[in-house]
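Hi C.,

You asked whether I'd gotten around to modeling the 268-residue construct. I have! Everything is below, sequence then structure, no commentary in between.
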Amino acid sequence: MRTKIYLFSLICLFFAACDHIDENDRLIYVEPETVKRCVLLEDFTGQKCVNCPRGTEVIEQMQEAYGEGIIAVGIHSGPLGFKGNATNIGLATDLGDEYYNHWQLEYQPVGLINRHGAINYTDWMTKVREEMTKTSTIDISLEASLNGNQITINAKETSLGGTYNGKLQIWILEDSITATQTRHDPIDNDNVTINDKNYIHNHVLRDAVNGHWGEDLSLDANEPKKQTYSYEIPINGKWNPSHLSIVAFVYNDNGVEQAIKAKVINNE
């Protein structure tokens, strides 16, 4: 009986001690702040790909519905890509081929949505809607300006939660490029294929600014990281400076955590 009384007294003392912990000393869980997550769609396309314009149509529908919430990048590449000749502009690049081969893609059009595996264009809308419901603890700001043929890019990333380790990727895109495209005839859509020499290509990946796979990025909570890049655009007349934009995104093995797009502003 004496032993039982002793144990009971210890238990009472334990709970009494817990009751007297100062409020300032107690551990309180604080949920991290979040921001809306933008969805990055890497559209692996090609000028010799007859179905690729249908993928573009899906992108246009989603852009109309979600606005800046979706960022599309047209990566001309693979066996249906075209690198140009003496008479026709080609949009495929060695960079695009590197990405196409890295992800072991087998057909076009096909897309990566926040880098969660290859998805056929017929399923893009469903997957984008799913990604739209998610939030992120990474916030990015981005601005780009053009002086002469020199683009200055300023980026800033902030973790609103805990530590984040991954990579930061910066790409240059161009819109409104008139170039050839194999496609289904608009009138006899299923049975006739045409070579449309006046097709308008948008969000075309031109180059990577900070390496083909970006650079390492480590963020601590609420301690922003800033970067400034300088990029010299070609002066051979093949790029239109007024149609350029910059895409920045952070990613790791779990996929793309956040993305942002900014138009290149001409200061002249």
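If it helps when you're writing up: Helices lie at 2-19, 52-66, 94-102, 124-132.

Thanks,
B.
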